[in-house]
Backbone:
């Protein structure tokens, strides 16, 4: 069977699978990503503070952009 | 994630083990896996051969995401920023400055090469898995808002570029959207990448335009070697153009796109060196096009022409006396190309990110039926941006102005995620960033945050720029 015409999730013969497994790294297969998801990381206090600081920075700066557009439009 | 949905949607039982080649019957193979494996087989065969030509062929097989991301970022608003830079400030300060921004882009994008090759996962997927949905959604909203606004500006550039040739706006915008659809028709990452690469290389049409403007080579050499001060010092205008030029080279969508494209292309840790070369080639080509645009429009600055509110078509018309009809036509064509390639790559980055977060199949190797949500996000986002450009009375000039600024402002949070992921030993193993790479990355964050603060000062209290030596 021509692997090119295999449908999604269709079982293919073992020769074709062996060829695929040889060409791809094991965790490159779509089904591998199901089995091995990256575990959640616990953020340290410093990391949380940094995340929040940058979030406030972004919100504040977006406010400035909106102000600039508003004043620009008025002129 | 893609895997479980793919398996469930096909009506198969959930996949078992995948890392036992000795037990292949347990593997669920998807169409996407098969297409990617075909590409990888070619890479493995070529790598096994010795000599110059096999190495050159290997490079040909492995380049793509880096060149696409860099030339994709030379998009409509970016080329307009470079054109405005040359026309309003000449070459003295900005030629070396723009080269520096591309070096910054190389530092940032190299991290996505390592991350994509080491994990085989997209950027959004990793952020959601490692930091959880709370922070993940923040980064997604940043990306989607930025991408949509940028897409609008791409269609503005397409409309303006083709408008120079007398193409009506509706025809230009609809035609561009159809080109975007056509690029996806092969349902094959490799074909899509090569077609888009060919289009992206047309970004270099700005080089002949620069040559036609008869540049003063000694001045260009002098500008590159002896970095001249910012003309007029720091003013709200120069700060805006500084930010626009930075935003023309480093933006959040680039992080998401290159990492996802590397995973989709199937690059592995053995290909990282080629991924870096790919990124550097892309940065060199993009920097060349950017510098050429500044040099071309510097003719307007030299002749004292005002170019404050020029759009793409007006730049081409204004340049005609200096570069001739062919040069002006090439300039307008370049603007169209810049918008077109960026519309393709930016909408693809949105579709990848959506698929990774919504755990839907997300690959350019998917047939339409299997990747419906992926293709629909891509096409609907582009269609909405295209339609917006056609609404009469929309303040297009303001959208173009703020898009690059928004990109700079959104970069520090995006870079923090990237920095933490690429230093995550659990994910990266021995491929975590070395000290020098971390120092460079932190340097980029400091520059971006500093530029953002400077912008804030210039808008809220412009007179305070005097503190920084401005007027």
Residues:
């Amino acid at each position: 069977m021509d692997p090119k015409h295999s449908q999604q999730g269709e079982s293919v013969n073992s020769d074709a699978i062996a060829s695929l497994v040889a060409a791809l790294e094991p965790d490159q297969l779509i089904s591998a990503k199901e089995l091995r998801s990256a575990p959640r990381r616990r953020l340290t206090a410093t990391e949380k503070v940094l995340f929040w600081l940058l979030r406030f920075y972004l919100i504040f700066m977006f406010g400035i952009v909106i102000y600039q557009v508003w004043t620009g439009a008025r002129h | 994630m893609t895997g479980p949905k793919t398996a469930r949607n096909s009506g198969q039982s959930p996949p078992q083990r995948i890392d036992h080649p000795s037990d292949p019957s347990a593997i669920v193979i998807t169409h996407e896996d098969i297409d990617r494996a075909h590409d990888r087989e070619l890479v493995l065969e070529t790598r096994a051969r010795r000599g110059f030509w096999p190495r050159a062929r290997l490079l040909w097989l492995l380049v793509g995401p880096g060149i696409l991301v860099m030339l994709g970022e030379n998009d409509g608003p970016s080329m307009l920023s470079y054109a405005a830079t040359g026309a309003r400030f000449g070459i003295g300060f900005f030629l070396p400055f723009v080269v520096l921004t591309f070096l910054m882009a190389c530092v940032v994008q190299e991290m996505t090469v390592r991350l994509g090759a080491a994990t085989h996962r997209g950027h959004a997927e990793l952020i959601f898995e490692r930091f959880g949905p709370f922070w993940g959604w923040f980064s997604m909203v940043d990306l989607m808002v930025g991408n949509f606004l940028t897409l609008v500006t791409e269609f503005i550039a397409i409309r303006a570029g083709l408008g120079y040739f007398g193409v009506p706006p509706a025809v230009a915008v609809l035609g561009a959207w159809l080109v975007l659809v056509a690029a996806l028709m092969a349902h094959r990452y490799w074909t899509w990448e090569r077609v888009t690469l060919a289009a992206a290389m047309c970004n270099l049409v700005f080089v002949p335009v620069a040559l036609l403007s008869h540049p003063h080579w000694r001045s260009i050499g002098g500008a590159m070697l002896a970095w001249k001060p910012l003309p007029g010092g720091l003013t709200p205008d120069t700060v805006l153009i500084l930010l626009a030029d930075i935003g023309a080279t480093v933006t959040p969508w680039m992080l998401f796109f290159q990492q996802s494209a590397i995973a989709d292309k199937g690059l592995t840790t053995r290909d990282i060196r080629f991924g870096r070369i790919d990124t550097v080639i892309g940065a060199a080509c993009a920097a060349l096009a950017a510098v050429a645009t500044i040099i071309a429009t510097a003719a307007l600055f030299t002749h004292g022409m005002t170019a404050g509110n020029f759009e793409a078509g007006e730049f081409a018309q204004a340049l005609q006396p200096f570069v001739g009809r062919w040069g002006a036509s090439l300039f307008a064509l370049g603007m169209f190309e810049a918008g077109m390639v960026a519309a393709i790559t930016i909408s693809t980055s949105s579709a990848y990110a959506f698929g990774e977060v919504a755990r839907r199949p997300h690959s350019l190797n998917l047939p339409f039926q299997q990747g419906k949500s992926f293709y629909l996000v891509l096409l609907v986002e582009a269609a909405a941006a295209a339609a917006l450009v056609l609404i009469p009375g929309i303040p297009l000039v303001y959208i173009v102005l703020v898009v690059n600024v928004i990109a700079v402002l959104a970069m520090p949070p995006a870079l923090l995620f990237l920095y933490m992921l690429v230093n995550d030993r659990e994910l990266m193993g021995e491929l975590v960033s070395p000290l020098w790479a971390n120092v460079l990355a932190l340097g980029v964050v400091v520059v971006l945050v500093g530029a953002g603060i400077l912008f804030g000062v210039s808008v809220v209290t412009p007179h305070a720029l005097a503190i920084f030596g401005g007027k």
Notes: The longest helix of chain B spans residues 312-358. Chain B touches chain A through 69 residues (CB under 8 Å).
